Amino acid sequence: MENNQKNIEKILDDGKLVKKLNNTSINKFNSKACLYRWQGEQYVVRRIGKQYNLSTRHLIVLERNLHIYYELLQKFLSIGLPKIFLTKIDKQQSTILLVTEYFPKGKIGEIKNVSKKVKYFKVIARLIIKLASSKINLDLNKLICSIDPNPENFFLDFKNKLIYNDFTPPLYCKNGKWFEFRRQDELHAKKSDKEKRYFTGLNLLLVFINKTRIYLPFSDYLKFVMWLSNEIQKSHFTNNSNIGIFPEVFTELYTKKPVDFSKLAKYAVLRDVLRFAISFRKDLKSSQIEEIYKKSKGLDGIKILTKKLYAKNQSSDSRIG
C-alpha cells in the first residue's frame, strides 16, 4: 500500500476523467471503474461494495479484509500486483473507494496472437498449481489464499509481465473459514459450492480451464489442456492437494462414454465438471460456449448443462480423439 493517501484523494476533485473502464449497464453487479489522469499520471478509481449491498459496518469489514488479502497475495503469488494508493469508505454511496495503478497494455484476454495468449495461460496454470500444492498455503486440504482465475483479472505491465488485478471478494480463509461477501445475483448459490470452487486445487484449475475455452480456438484449447495434464502428471504430487488427479479427470471426460459424473462431483462442483465436459464439444464455437456458461449460472444451471452435453447434435465425431 502506498502512503500518500491525502494527496491521492484529490484525484476525484482535481483529476480529469479519461474514460469508464467497464459497462455497469451490462452487468449491474460489476464494481464501477474509471480511468483518471492527475498530475501527469493515470489511476484506476473503483467503487466497490455496492454489488454486495453492505451496511457501513460490513463495509469496514470488507475494507479490512481487502488489506489482509492484498498482503496474503504478496506472500503467495509469484506474479505482480497493482499498487494500491487508497482505500476509503464512502458512507453516502455505501461503497469503498479503491485507487490503483493503471495498466495500459490491458488484459491478456485481449491479446490477438493465440500463441502469446497460450503462453500467458500456461503461466497462470503454473501459478494455480503452485498455489494448490504449497504446503504453507493448505489448511486441512483447503487453500488459505486463493484467486479468481478468470483471464479478465490478469493484465500486462509495461514489461509484459503478468499482473493479478482482482481483490473482491477477498479470497482467503482464516482458521479454515471464509468470510463471504455475496453479490445479489449469487443468492441462490450454496456457500459450500463456492468454497469448493475457490479453495480446492482441482476445482480452481477447472474454473480457469473452462474460461480459457472462451478465448482459444478448439484445437489450441485441446493442446493446452493436454499440455497441462502432462505437466501435472510429471509433478507427482504427494501433499494434500487434489490437483494431482486432474489427468484422470481429463481422461475420464475426454475419452470415456458414459461418464460417472457422481464420482467426479466428489472432487469438484458438478457445474464446473459439466462445463469441462462440454468444453470438448468441437462443434461449439467459443461464443456458444460463453453463452452456455452464462445461462448455466442460475438455479437450473445443472439442467441446462446436462441437456447441452447430451444434445442431439453431439455425435461420436463431436470430439477429436
Beta content: 5-15%
Number of alpha- plus pi-helical segments? 12
Counted up, domains total: 2
Query: How many strand segments?
Result: 11
Radius of gyration over all CA atoms, rounded: 20 Å
Summed over residues and divided by their number, the pLDDT gives a mean of 89
Element-level helix/strand string: HHEEEHEEHEEEEEEHHHHHHHH
User: Could you give the order of strands across the largest sheet?
Assistant: 1-2-3-5-4
The portion of residues assigned to helices is 40-55%
Q: Which spans of ≥5 residues are poorly predicted at pLDDT below 50?
A: none
Shape assignment: globular
Question: Helix/strand-derived class?
Answer: alpha+beta
| Main sheet attributes: strand count, strand direction, barrel closure | 5 strands, antiparallel
Distance between the termini: 50 Å
Question: Can you put this structure into words, describing what you see?
Answer:
- The structure is a single chain.
- By secondary structure, the protein is of the alpha+beta class.
- It folds into 2 domains: about 5-100, Phosphorylase Kinase, domain 1, CATH 3.30.200; about 110-310, no CATH class.
- The chain has 12 helices and 11 strands.
- It has helices at about 5-10, 10-15, 55-75, 115-135, 190-200, 200-215, 220-235, 245-255, 260-265, 270-280, 285-295, 300-310, and strands spanning about 15-20, 30-40, 40-50, 85-90, 95-100, 140, 140-145, 155, 160-165, 175, 175-180.
- It has a 5-stranded antiparallel β-sheet. A two-stranded antiparallel sheet has the order 6-7. The chain has a two-stranded antiparallel sheet with strand order 8-9.
- A hairpin with a 2-residue loop joins strand 2 and strand 3.
- Helix 4 (about 115-135) runs antiparallel to helix 6 (about 200-215) and helix 10 runs parallel beside helix 12.
- The chain starts with a helix and ends in a 12-residue tail after the last helix.
- The model has no long low-confidence stretch (mean pLDDT about 90).
